[in-house]
Amino acid sequence: MRKFAGTFVALAVLVVLGAYILFIEGVKPPDRDADNVIIKVAADDITHLAIEQSSGRVEVGRGADGKWAIASPRRLAANQAAVKAVVDAAVKLECEKKVTDSADAGDLDAFGLAAPEFKVTLDTRQGRKTVLVGAETPVGSARYVKLADSDPVYTLASGTVSALRKSLDDLREREILRVSNDSVTALRLVKPGGGEIRLEREGGTGGEWRITHPFDDEADRWKVNEVIWDLTSLNVSEFVDDDGKDLARWGLDRPRLRVDARSSERFLPLELFVGAPGPGGKGFYVRTSDSPSIYLVNPAAFSPLETGALDVVKRDLLTWNDDDLLRVTCDDQGKAVTLLRDGKEWTAAPPGPAGAGVAARIAPGAGAPATAAPEVVKEGEKWHLKADARKRPAEDMGRLWAALRGASVSQVVQGAVAGADEARYGLDRPRIRVELDLGDGKVLELRVGSRGGEGYYATATGRGLVYVVEEAKAQALERAIDALL
Fold first, then answer.
1. Contacts for 67-71 with beta carbons within 8 Å, 24 or more apart?
2. Which of 2, 114, 287, 420 is 20–30 Å from 31 (CA)?
């Protein structure tokens, strides 16, 4: 008998396993796709959506361009993502289970379907589908549902119910400007009392920014981009007043800021008006030229309110690519040095009096070199000092580049135009002059003049105004030049 024991055990295991499989198959839930999908349509086939509940009825329609727009209770821009979420929940409406194939009037009342909590109606190319959503189930948070034109009653999961039950404010567009950052080509910021800044992107989309009022100058693109980002990321926190008749109530009769923005994505400029602070000082009220509606917004930051003309001025007086540099001439209060690049190294002639730099010695058509000056020759695109050449340590050159870039604008001298009255600012005989030769005839010059306010007056090639450079930064440039003399 023992030789058959293993066989009996194997047979017993098979019997138990078979019984287990039959049991599991017997209790497996029914295929939901078969019985519990009460709506199954393609999202593109839905042309109209309506949600009706105690707070009101909202209707959304799809335009010829495929975009959704709110049609009722008034025509408003729709949040495309919010409407899509409702459509996605409705196109394959899969219920948890079927409660009954048919319900009489008493049952419908018990299920909350005689007077539904809300209705969702879909107009499709195949016809109209209306979903009635009733009371919560006794256990759990699902709700009873049925189609208006069929008898079976089902239960619908709470997550799907929440996805369908949306109000007007849930479906409204919350972006204020609705244009991309790169599409903005001009800005105008106006504050009470005559404070006005105008900015234009040179060459349109993709160009550099320039200040055109209250003065003409290069703008700091990073600061302008910050202003644009704060504008385009402005979102509605609360829909306050769609009629917008009482502007004084919201501080919009005399706004504390007006922003006009031109965009390549719009035919007409967009105007934004900023009014009074919100409750408790949080956020502020706004409206736009697109709608009379008034909104409360509460951004984490909003730079346009604090931005002045000086804030958007390009701070770097000189901008260059190190690889383009061929020659540097530095004059510091009567002493000068000229440096020429040789590969990655820089060489310099012995210091001489101001005005006797390499530029004078290598001028086209110039005669013999100045007294005691080394001979300068050009090989290809590089200048070389043939006699008494002294190499400059990379550390000294690094300090010069850092000091030059650090000599940035701290103030604009209002009404002062470069070249108009240089003697007034000590720029006719500057205490510091730096000249950068970038080749192909392109030369940049920085001049630092007399003391002015908390720094020194300065001007630079390509910049049309007179500026102030902080004293500490001017002195750092002096020290960097002295180390090269």
1. 70/168, 70/171, 70/172
2. 114
